[in-house]
Amino acid sequence: MTALPQPKHVASRRMAMAACWVVLATALALGCMAPDSQPSPGRPAQPGQGPGGREQPLGMSPNQELSVGRRAYRQVMAEYGSRVLSGSNSQVLRVRAIAAKIATAAEIEPLQREINLRLKGYRFEWEANVIQDNQVNAFCLPGGKIFVFTGIFLVAQDDDQLATVMSHEVAHALAHHASERLAREQSGVGVLRSLKYNRDQEAEADHIGLFLMTFAGYDPRQAVIFWERMQQRMGGQHPPEFLSDHPSDEHRIEAMKKWVPKAIAGKKAFDRGDIAPPPPGQ
């Protein structure tokens, strides 16, 4: 009998934190220097507006972020070894097809502009792999390396719901959340403020991911259904939101229901060519 997946708040947090600390430890080993007026190889970016227009200090330059992602990718591949499924596996083919559509959507300039993604000078080496493991989890490293655990297929009923998870994780990479966490770590913020920043990032990834999956051709209404299924499966097994680094399922679902009509309307406007031109000079 196949073992049941661990509760999401245990399995996903354990793996996400492990991946995060791999990234941050590697970044610290690189010796990030003081901010400069412009990102350059070896220097972190200045604080500036991030997704949604919020202030977002970054701890790594574009080149450092890519290097961190490459190093973390090698560590993850070495750790899981034979449990990384071959490229001919049907689940791998499915995940890679979805990843390709999401990566294409991420290149849509009006969408980047609407979300205020800072992608100039950044390079993404998109690749998706599947790990044979009952964790209900997935993650995306800086630079675009995506990992999906087979446990997620027990919850995601179709490609739309699988795209929900993958778009959320890709959103973290596009929004440079690991780089931001490094900057926050270096600033010495307290635990409660750090949890708030992490919840902000998770909500931001939900928002970006919903629009990303919609522009990739997937149904954003399935995102709501997926998180409702996840909520039912976990049966309330998660800490209070103020002690968690993720929004509560209730808040997440409520927010997504508000974003779905906007995402659908945005995609229809884009398909019609009814989009605002970029500001002069861009």
Keywords:
282 residues; two-stranded antiparallel sheet; 9 helices; 3-stranded mixed beta sheet; disordered N terminus; mainly alpha
Summary, kept brief:
The protein has helices at residues 8-30, 62-80, 90-106, 109-115, 159-174, 177-187, 191-215, 221-234, 249-272, and strands at residues 48-49, 55-56, 127-131, 138-140, 145-149. It is mostly helical and 282 residues long. α1 (8-30) packs across α2 (62-80), α3 (90-106) crosses α5 (159-174) and α7 packs parallel to α9.
Q: Can you describe what's shown?
A:
This protein is mainly alpha-helical. It is globular. It contains nine helices and five strands; from the N terminus they run αββαααβββααααα. The N terminus is likely disordered. Strands 3-5-4 form a three-stranded mixed beta sheet, sandwiched between helices. A two-stranded antiparallel ribbon has the order 1-2. Helix 8 packs antiparallel against helix 9.
Question: What is the topological layout?
Answer:
Layout: H1 8-30, E1 48-49, E2 55-56, H2 62-80, H3 90-106, H4 109-115, E3 127-131, E4 138-140, E5 145-149, H5 159-174, H6 177-187, H7 191-215, H8 221-234, H9 249-272
Parallel strand pairs: 3-5
Antiparallel strand pairs: 1-2, 4-5
CA(first)-CA(last) distance? 57 Å
Helix content: 55-70%
Radius of gyration: 18 Å
pLDDT under 50 segments (min length 5)? 1-17, 23-43, 239-244
Large-scale geometry: globular
> How many individual helices?
9
H-E order: HEEHHHEEEHHHHH
Major sheet attributes:
3 strands, mixed
Mean of pLDDT:
80
What class do helices, strands and sheet pairing give? Answer: mainly alpha
